[in-house]
Description:
The chain is of the alpha+beta class.
Amino acid sequence: MTLFHIASSLRKNDVNKNLYTFSISFIKLYKPLSRFFINKMASKSTYKIQNIVATTSLEKPIPLTKLARTQPNTEYNPETFPGLVLRIKEPKSAVLVFSSGNLVCTGTKSVEQVKKVIQAVIKQLRKINVKITTKPKITVQNIVASGTINLKLNLNYLAIEMENTEYEPEQFPGLVYKLIEPNATFLLFSNGKLVCTGTKNKQQLEYSMAQLLKNVKAVLKNYEK
């Protein structure tokens, strides 16, 4: 997913803070397993943060045309999109910069990395005589994590027995499961692997994973009766 796909959720020259729903595409298709759980393994779930989307404001106008003309690590096509893409090498990330001073940072895997990226942007803006004097307030909008619940899943059965699910195996091999509280969306696969999106901090992510495991186990318990 490119930044321009994310950009469709943004207002011109501003950040729509109710944006970012991320999805992850899997190319390889496979047949769902015929049994509900096979070879039950550990009961714990594990995860790894793959991407954090965060926003902030520098509270100062940014001359995007000047930034694009003088800095080689930029992409700017104002005819198609009002924001400028600024790519940071370390930590590897990309930042949408708007003329209002609003930023959208994506590609990092921790809040500490987000802070480093924002400081790198501020340092680069000094090169075009834009001095940021305020300390930017960072807001995490979305965390994307991958992981596993260490269980083999029959997605057809899950789709029938669990609420808030979507499953169309002819179009996509994963089952979509939505948690209401906390707000999180999971992509579940028959091998037990998953993608979680929608949480905004580590505590929400861990609680969502625990709730997922609890709900799946409840369905398993009913299946075994």
